[in-house]
Amino acid sequence: MSGLVNAPYAEVSELLEISSVQDRVYRGFCRTESLFEYVRQEYLNHESEIMSVFDSKEVADMNPKELDRAKKFIGEFFTILKNDESFKEEILSNCRN
Questions:
Q1: Please, are residues 26 and 82 in contact by the beta-carbon 8 Å criterion?
Q2: Hey, which of 15, 43, 94, 95 would disulfide with 26, CB 3.0 to 4.6 Å?
Q3: What is the spatial distance between Cα 30 and Cα 88, in angstroms, rounded to a whole number?
């Protein structure tokens, strides 16, 4: 979550092989592939609603650079979900037992 807002106080865990809180590492537990696919499709079905938040009046007071960065961060999430290979590599292959 701190990657979305790029919290200045956030620190990367030494247990993870990442250098920034904005680097993505899926740390969820393994579930059936059909459940992963169901959740994936739920997110994809609501992509336009989620992305429209960045153009809404509720965020009009945000710093434009921060807003663009957050929009890009969420957009990259959807890019992973839309690509079968990326989804397998970034999410399915990284689940915890």
A1: no
A2: 94
A3: 12
Best CA proximity match to 78, nearest among 33, 54, 45, 44 = 44
CA gyration radius, the chain: 15
Signed CA dihedral, 37, 39, 44, 79: sign only = negative
Q: Which residues contact 60 (CB under 8 A, 6 or more apart)?
A: none
Nearest to 3 by CA among 94, 61, 74: 74
pTM: 0.85
